[in-house]
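Why does residue order matter? Because the sequence determines the fold. Keep that principle in mind as you read this record.
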Amino acid sequence: MLKSRAKTFGEITAVCGEQRQLTYRQLYRAASSAAEHLESLGAAEGDPIVIGAPPSPEFYVCFYAAAALGLIVLPVLPSGRIPRLVVERKPVFAVGSERFLEQAATECPTVKHRLRWNPETGLDLPQNGSRFRRRKTFRDECVIGVSSSGTTGTPTIYYRSQELLVRRAQFRAKSLDISPQDVLLSARPFNSGSSINSHIMMPLAAGCKIVVEEKFKRFQAADAIGRERVTVLYAVPFVFELLASLPGDYPADFSSLRLCISGSAPLADSVASAFKRRFGIEIRQRYGGSHIHPAFTYNLKGVSGAVGQNFGPFPMTILDEEGNEQGAEIVGELAFAYHRIARPWKKFLRNNPNRRGRYIWTGDLGRMDGDGNVFVVGRKSPFIKVRGNRVEPAEVEHVLRSHPAVKEAFVYAARAGQPDEAVAAIVVVQSPVQEHEIVRLCLARLDAYKCPRTISFRSDLPRNEHGKIARQVLEREILSTTARATS
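Structure:
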């Protein structure tokens, strides 16, 4: 596909970085040279390669070079710390900055070859003309392993074949009407399945340009949107929150944006409203995940707060714990109806570990309105038991976030496991509000036993590198505080 794009869109910019940019023809040639170099080092089909370079043109070069040889790409954060699961995969090659490579040498004794990258000069590769010829098309073989974020559980590596990557990218580009005239902006690291799909594969499938930045900075990103005439912004809610918080007198020109998509975490109404007030653009939500890939849903209708609809190639439904489909406005677990999924995608989901019978369970809570619009309520999590009654933290968090003064919410069990176990909450507010005002809203929308008995206020909540609330960090902090109080 890259070779085809190089012929058709040769002089069109494929990727624009902070220091350099590459046309499709240049990207193809650079990837071929890198593949030839890796091959000269003894790269063999199935060898794992860790790419710790930040979002940059060189990341694309390494990705396509590795794919041409049938290597297994393991993208990680460029911070230097390599996840345990990646170390256990025994990588043979590593790509990144000097600091990253030093860390890789310490943590990954199996790494035999290191390719250096730096922001000024890019990849340290021989300058010989490429004579690389691809010997095989690795259609069905695994060529990439992407990690889940581990927000609420143990991180896992999910493997993808080239066929799945390409088909999903083509389908997503078609669903979002991405054309060669579009310009995308990357606003997240490349260590997740979502970033690989949206910012590595989809631009190639559409033959369009993508602007990448090594680290997201709101002023720099705003300048890039105006300067490069970005048309599509796919990002996590935290990015939209930061952009919406730009000073009112900052000359941010977002007039070229035609489509803003939020994914990977729930989008707070306050963030969506602030962004629309600031720039006049409605953010559309998308729902998917590494554990349910390639299934996803997208808010085609533009209904406020919805993440998608109950139709399309991946129809969704709401289930109770026994697997019964629920009616309108009843909170239950979001699921994809496997028996109604379009035939071309069934083979990729047939053996999904989250499939049980006719459904693929997502682990998230949601509801559906009478028109079939799907809304995410929150992550399904261990319930809080209040006087024998079950309370889902995600349901309470959803109500807390609906208060106009509340920006973020985290609900947990106070005195967990004790007879007087109760609901407690931590909130981040964006305007002055009293605790009793928030409690009053909860009492109006929830049964009394579900309402927080205590609400504490913070200026912010810890987040992971994907911009999601780091629930495990908060849970450990609460456990530690409780232990100290009882000792």
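Residues 218 and 246 are 8 Å apart (CA to CA).
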